[in-house]
Amino acid sequence: MTITFYTNPMSRGQVARWMLEEVDAPYEQVLLDYGTTMKGAEYLAINPMGKVPAIVHDGHVVTECAAICAYLADTFPAAGLAPTAAERADYYRWLFFAAGPVEQAVTFKFMQVPIEGRNEMMAGCGTYESAMAALDGWLAGHDYVCGGRFTAADVYVGAQVAWGCSSSRSRRRRRSRPTAPA
Ligand SMILES: N[C@@H](CCC(=O)N[C@@H](CS)C(=O)NCC(=O)O)C(=O)O
Question: How much distance in Å is there from the Cα of 115 to the middle of ligand 1?
């Protein structure tokens, strides 16, 4: 059954698109605009957050990039991107770590919200440095997120790393941009 893929080309929807292509799923895309169709009643009935991406497959809605990656890996097993039983621990551990702590840490850093003092205990990501060190420590010793082969976790974790790198590059570019004369 064809998947309906709701997205905007300038969004995390590109992660879902990458995964749709990896599993070779039949899909049709619906492009939504920020602030208008993305917040319209029709789309809010699919994703009440009014955010992309979302997919609808066989009457089921899946939102959240990491969930979409895992769902597609499970639903299209011929692509071989779902974990085996032996790979599952590392797969879920780092998939959820990237969707939670890594995403939070990068977002706080991009927004220049410091996590200091006792807040570090409350914030699930700890500090940016601790979250990055944990991921870096794992990837330094492993070519893939789990099991020595490419899985859906590599799509998602890889996309999060690429997004983090591009966020910090665009922040540096914004900082170095000359200010317009008053
Ligand atoms: N946790 C969601 C985040 C989705 C998200 O924030 N998408 C942004 C685009 S990258 C969005 O749709 N923003 C539109 C808005 O909030 O109005 C995921 O991983 O899919």
Answer: 22
Of the three residues 79, 111, 140, the one that is the final residue of a domain is: 79
Q: What is the DSSP letter of 2?
A: P
Residue 40: give its domain's CATH number: 3.40.30.10
The average pLDDT across 97-119 equals 94
Mean pLDDT value across residues 160-167: 84
CA distance 136 to 46: 36
* pLDDT > 90 fraction of the chain, expressed in percent and rounded: 87
Determine whether the shortest distance from the Cβ of 52 to ligand 1 is under 6 A.
yes
Last residue of a domain, one of 64, 79, 94: 79
As a whole number of angstroms, the distance between CA 89 and CA 87 comes to 6
- pLDDT, tens only, 10-26: 999 999 999 999 999 99
Whether ligand 1 lies within 6 angstroms of the CB of 167 is answered as: no
The answer, yes or no, to whether any atom of ligand 1 lies below 6 A from the CB of 70, is no
